[in-house]
Amino acid sequence: MAEIKPLRAWRYSPKHINNLEDLVSPLFDVVSEKQRESLYNNPFSSIHLSVPNGDNPINDAVKTLEDWKATGVIQQDDLPSIYVYYQHFNLPGSDKQYCRKGFIANLKIYDWDEEMLLRHENTMPYSVNDRMDLLNKTELNVSPTHGLYTDDEMRIEEFLDQAMETPLYETEDYQGVRDVFAVIHDARIIQQIIDIIRDKKIILADGHHRYEGSLMNKKKMQASNPNHTGKEGYNYHMMWFTNTEADDLRILPTHRLVKDLPDFSEKQLLKKLEQYFFIKHIPEPTTVNEVILGKKWAFGLLINDKAYKIRLKPEMIEEIDWNFPLAIKELDLTVMHYFVFEKCLGIPGKDQRDSRNLTFERNFVKCMSDVQNGNVQCAIITKDISIETVKEVCYSGYTLPQKSTYFYPKVICGFLFGSIKEDEFNSFFDEAFE
Question: Is 300 left (phi over 0), alpha (psi -120 to 50) or beta?
Answer without folding.
Answer: beta
